[in-house]
Amino acid sequence: MASTGGKRFRNDIEGLRGFAIALVVIFHVFVGKVSSGVDVFLLLGGVFFFGSQLANARNPKGLTFVQSLVRIIRRLFPLLAVVVGATLAAGLLLMPRIQHLQLAKDAVGALAYITNWQLAFSGRDYNTASSTVSPFQHLWSMSAQLQIYVASLIAVTLIALIFRRFSRKALAVILTAVTVLSFAFATYQHGQDQAVNYYHSFSRFWEIGLGGLLGMLIMPRSDHGEKPPAPIVPPLNTWVRQLFGWLGLIMIASTGLIMDGAQTFPGPGTLFPLVGAVMVILAGQNGKPVGVTRILESRFMQFLGRISYALYLWHWPLLIILVSYTGYNAQEQPLFGVAIIAASVVMAWLSNRLIERPLRQTGRPRRAHVLWTPSYWWEAIRVWPKTAYAMVIILIAGGVVAAAPVVAKNQVEEGEELWRLASNVENYPGPLAFSNDAFVPPRQPLAPPFEEMGPLLPPTQPDGCQIGFEEDHLILKRNFNRSEEDCAYGDLNSERTVYVIGGSHSEHFIPALDEVGRRQGVKFMPILKMGCPVNANITKWDGSDFPSCRSWSKKVVDHILANPPTEGVWMTGTRPSDIAGNGPEQVPPEYVDLVKLFTDNGIHSYLMRDNAWHTQPAETGAPVPFDLRECVGEMVDGTRTTTERARNFPGVRDRWRPTPEEIEEINAECGTAQDDSLLPEDPQYQAYAGLDVTLLDVTDGFCKDGWCPAIIGNLVAYRDQHHFTNIFASRFANAIEYQMYKKPRGAEGSEDKARKAPDATAGQPGAPGENTPGQPGVEEPGAGQPDAGQPGAGLDAPSPDEIGQHPPVQAPPVPQPAAPAGDFY
After folding, report:
1. Where is the composition biased (Pro residues) (predicted)?
2. What is the pLDDT of residues 762-818, one digit of tens each?
3. d(Cα 761, Cα 520) in Å, to the nearest integer?
4. Are 741 and 757 spatial neighbours (Cβ–Cβ below 8 Å)?
5. Of the candidate ranges 255-269, 570-584, 693-707, the one whose mean pLDDT is the lowest
């Protein structure tokens, strides 16, 4: 039966809540995209929230601030604690150890209602379901919603205290102003930093505020128990209601199919589904149920509405943990997805029956000062049987969650020790083990600690010296241009400058370039954007259009031509055949055009041959990205099940002392053939013929005998599919320095142009690459290798005897977690 204007409970809105949760679950499980369900939830929350707070503020006998807060917490927190506890326990049991530290941190953040800020500050975009995604990721919306509710409660309470005659009209004016400001902020942030904008509480406020304004217009509440005033928006006639209902529901349902919510919400595009939700609400405002309203008031939709909160909490951790444990994909195995949804519904129904309903507060909560009286606690004991089982479940969950800080502390301490050990180049030679046949001591702990992504990133990430996908302005100062300090590495006081330009594959060599710059007296200045090689005609990693890359590239080129570097630009000179990393490497014609432009303007180019992009066969379609860090973690734990080799591998018996045989087994599983992504010879040599370039190639440091593995010289080489860990990248400093300053290699027909930069260490006794008199056994670097001036020459790095003739390359200090570059170029 449809609600009338005076009724507070709207069955059609409860059904709309059920429809929204159905969209969320279906899109998460089967589509792998963001639907509009969460945005509709936020709108519906605002419909009732602000009206009730206005009524409390205007009624002397209304709920106090503390009472309102207690009611909200009692409604939301108990089940959240249970889900977080169960998820943490299941995650520690079933998910790879590589994810345990992040699990523990995310669990604490979920209970503290700060998940949205954790995700925003760590740069984790809202990702589709996979084994590497946090099972707590979906709780960002719960965090943002509670933050908005608490802030609004405080604001309404203060305004009511200051202005005793607090009218409905005054609240409407204030709420309208704040909602408009929030919408403007979300629109601005959408073009500045969408990764943060998606999770930002103030960016999300306007969705709840819009709901509050709608509630005041169509469902005004009485202040002192009298009859509610008439709705400002009159009821619609039957045919308009039917039109609004169907059109609105179609708008809500189609949003996830026609737009990318992760890159759109909560910007202006969010109006599309929210306007649809408003139309559905108006369609059910008055009279008998017709059309969509009849469907929303059906028993099934009412059931979904009742369990919507519990279903939202349960479905995502069940999906992520089971995807991680089984390796299944609901989009490829639909029955797996159906089973996930069925299990989620059962868990939601049980949670609603055993936890939500017993603890749901009926009647008025007691005022704050009463909580400390004996009579209050006597009453609580008297009604204990009703809530005993719910409280027992919550206490058990609380005990599990209490283990989270212990897990985090142990792994942090272990990680600090691993970073200390990895700073020893002799025990952790990394790429020198391949390029120089450096001795690799056996039974060393695998390093760096790969359980957490943040410390594996190049320093440009925590320094705020790169820009995200949506923005197109240049980042030239640290902290995203908020600092006065230049984005620069190497010798910061030098007048000799090199621009490091492009995407994350230029960026991940920054640790090595920092070392090279300090040795050679050169300042390396990065101008970087996620996923955007300068002047490349590419799409985003997901295949969508990338207009910000084109506009950013133009700004980069204009800046370089207007402010030319003294030494040149440094960038990658090749890339895979497609955006996913499939197919052999190529030199895009746009790259050649860019280098020719630089040559014509007297600017030298240092071009690094791209590294291997690791992919693995999919059951259908093209190969898919292969995360080597994840693979190593699963193999170490003995939890990888994707191949027979992995299933038969029991894991590393002693994580701190893996045997050479165990590392060999891991590398056989976690690696790809060199010819999957790299050509037999460097294609740069002919592609850049006649241009003013120095060609760089460190392939011999990460591939050997046709195989490119995950663990090289006791170091975990990759942080994902195709990005080096920062400490592994730092070990390329010798080779890069040698190829830039000792024995540079030019392109075909322009070999002489490679010798562009002077060697700051030339003639210094003991300098890298120098045959110092009186040192027996020191031979010229590259001796016995192909001539560096010839195409296909190997890695021109110092010889094994030369290691140690300069200060050892130290491991980068453990940085704070920062925005991961993701699977992007």
Report:
1. 809-818
2. 544 333 333 322 322 223 333 333 333 333 333 443 333 333 333 333 333 333 333
3. 7
4. yes
5. 570-584
Distance CA 157, CA 152 (A): 8
Picking from 619, 658, 625, the residue whose alpha carbon sits closest to that of residue 447 is: 658
Read off the tokens for 707: 């195989």
Q: How much is the CA Rg of the chain, to the nearest whole Å? A: 30
Tokens 């990888």, residue? 640
Please tell me which residue, 244 or 65, carries the higher pLDDT value. 244
From residue 258, alpha-carbon distances to 26, 36, 251 in Å are: 16, 11, 10
Q: What Å distances lie between residue 4 and 148, 220, 251, 332, 792, CA to CA? A: 29, 12, 25, 46, 79
Query: Between β-strands 568-572 and 605-608, what pairing exists: parallel, antiparallel or unpaired?
Result: parallel
Domain ranges in the chain are: 11-402, 432-763
**DSSP of 372-390:** GSHHHHHHHHHTHHHHHHH
Instruction: Give per-residue burial for 343-357: e unless 16+ CB within 10 Å, then b.
Output: ebbebbbebbeebbe
On whether the CB atoms of residues 112 and 429 are closer than 8 A, the answer is no
Nearest CA to 649 among 291, 661, 657?
661
448: cis peptide before it, omega within 30°?
yes
d(CA 559, CA 523): 17
What is the DSSP code (8-state) at residue 813? P
Tokens representing residue 565 in the block: 């570097």
Q: Which two tokens stand for residue 632?
A: 């190593």
> pTM value?
0.71
- Tell which wins on pLDDT, 175 or 288: 175
